What does this fold into?
Amino acid sequence: MLTPNLSYANLKDSYLFYHIAQKTGAWLNEHPGARLYRMGIGDVSLPLAPAVIAALHAAADDQSVKERFHGYMPECGAPFLRETIAGYYGKRNVSLSPDEVFVSSGASDELGDLLDLFDRSNRALIIEPAYPAYVDANIMAGREIVHLPSGPDNHFLPLPRPGIEADLIYLCSPNNPTGAVFNREQLAAWVSWANARGAVILFDAAYEAFIEEDLPHSIFEIPGAETCAIEICSLSKTAGFTGTRLGYTVIPKALERGGLSLNAMWVRNRTTKTNGISYILQRAGAAVFTDEGQKQIHANIRIYKENARVLMAALDEAGIRYWGGKNAPYIWMECPGGMGSWEFFDRLLNEIQVVGTPGEGFGACGEGFFRFSTFGDPADTREAASRLTALLRKI
Ligand code: PLP
It folds into this structure.
């Protein structure tokens, strides 16, 4: 008889956003026709940039003409896009060869699939609060997880310290959910820790485009990272591709473990397990990196940043401590009056119809904190902020 992957039994029964959807759904059932202000899930609200739309149309037309038609695409990515992305890193003085860049269908898919490269016996270090998929993907893979809590004392940016033992480590900077960003010295500490132990850093740079201060956008800005890090990136939040799906992963050729090149292993993996990403989407992705595309996506990012400013002003007025918002599309606030994070969720839902994300869903140390996404509609965000101000005055 077949034995299923019994590790699935170790997963918590409901995923954070599913649980939020159930609670908001139940509330809407009891209040038919009522309006909710959704500041919870990190999905974008602005449409794709005109340069991207033009590229999608042109690529669809290519597919209609025999001479320009594309069938299967190279499994690791189209050369034109791999070169374009290597050029994007080059602007930040990170020198990559195009075959160190792998085009993907998004960061989530990669974060799960990349675990194929590592033996089950490796321990995964996850800094919490964390994007829940890091934990769940490792539980599914049957891997031991080392939880490293962070908090206000270290500004949610913990550093390696004696006693921390792990083989794989997740760094997410700018961070979801806290919005915290590691500086160069802090990342250098993790790089030297990983190199000294032969560990591998999985660096999630999904929010790099939101950095506005002088902070590293890529782990490969740190000397030594090429022998210990893989970087996972996505156009989802950068360019509104959440429903379009495109990302990229950088695996340096210098990264070897156990005498094997992780870059070569990933080529072997992709050529076995995928048949490449759609030609049309890769053309759309390349348009993001043109001068016009960059101008347009940054205009959208500025709109999200204005949402952040409005929400931060509401918290400032109430004297509430928060992190993020400046270099990240998330604001991570302390719940008022020592309230629990699901209790604060319920009060926001029931009293002002604002939906956010309880910090506890990102790990036990997130209890007592709450996340707002700044990806919402600007008018909704302004309304939510003014309702929040009124509620916080009462609490
Ligand atoms: N990594 C982080 C930290 C995220 O917050 C998200 C999405 O919210 C992802 C990865 C997934 O991105 P994608 O849409 O490319 O799968």
